[in-house]
Amino acid sequence: MLTRSRLGMVLAVWMALATGAHAQPVIEAPQISVTGTAEVEATPDAIEWRILLTDKAMDPRTAKIANDTRFEAVLEAADDMDLPAEDVRIGTVAIRRLYHHDRNTSRTIFDGHQIQRQIILVQRDLEAFDDMLDALAVLGVEFEVGYSSSQIQALKEDARLNAVRAARDKAQAMAQVLGQEIGRPLYIEEISSGGHGFDLNNAGSNTRSGDRQAGEGMASILGAISASVKVKIVFDLIDPEIDPEAD
Fold first, then answer.
1. pTM for this prediction
2. How far apart are CA 218 and CA 161, in angstroms?
């Protein structure tokens, strides 16, 4: 025979199970998820010469002397171009031992020491592009060339806001086709943000002065730097016939 306390416990469990069995499923409020993208462009105002000095020798001192000699030659070229100290960016020195595997003897063979150093020269006088190119070509150094704009960060901020507006306008247009309206934003995320410009390494002869028209500046030859931003936003979806607050 059940005691009063046990009977109360059984009834409580039974009521809980009965309530759970008849509980209505939770219906989530309708939502709409969209993305928005915006891109802006800027005129380049600086050229970046990314120089990599690599030297190899069996003796690390010999490799360092060769690397130091070319390093000083690059700095002298920068000085001849009147580049200020803040536009000459010197990277760290990397030293490593080189090996290769000999298949015939299955042995690891030591190939010597390699020293690498990177220098970035920022040239703000775009019209002196050919002068810098000739100076580095004479030195026989390995380099890549790109360009940048001091306005790119501000342009990205503008692009971010334009991307949000584009996402909102897209959501409104899609909801209108369905006879709905968008409500408050529930979620927002910046999916990607980046800037890119013209890569002079792939430019070929298009960047050489001989291809320019009379009176045409280097900036017009280079083209523009673009910055793009993509965002994702989730909005409430409202039926104006059901929700009187939507008007």
1. 0.60
2. 31
Which range of residues forms the domain containing residue 186? 28-43+152-246
How many Å from the N-terminal Cα to the C-terminal Cα in the chain? 64
CATH number of the domain that residue 78 is part of: 3.30.70.2970
Q: Report pLDDT digits (tens) over 119-151.
A: 999 999 999 999 999 999 999 999 999 888 888
121 and 207 share one domain: no
Q: Would you give the distance in Å from CA 76 to the centre of its chain? A: 33
**CB neighbours (10 Å) of residue 47?**
23
Q: Within a domain: residue 194? A: yes
Crossing angle of helices 60-80 and 129-139, rounded to 10°:
160
Tell me phi and psi for residue 113, to 5 degrees. Answer: -110, 140
Other beta carbons less than 10 A from residue 220's beta carbon: 13
Please check whether residues 163 and 141 belong to one and the same domain. Answer: no
Residues 197 and 116 in one domain: no
Long-range contacts of 79-88 (CB under 8 A, 24+ apart): 80/135, 81/121, 81/123, 81/128, 81/131, 81/132, 81/135, 83/121, 83/122, 83/123, 87/121, 87/122, 87/123, 87/124, 88/119, 88/120, 88/121, 88/122
pLDDT at 25 over 80: no
Asked whether the beta carbons of 182 and 32 are under 8 A apart, the reply is: yes
State yes or no: pLDDT of 37 exceeds 90.
yes
DSSP secondary structure, 101-156, as one string: EETTTTEEEEEEEEEEEEEEEEE--GGGHHHHHHHHHHHT-EEEEEEE-TTHHHHH
What tokens appear for 18 in the block?
């009965």
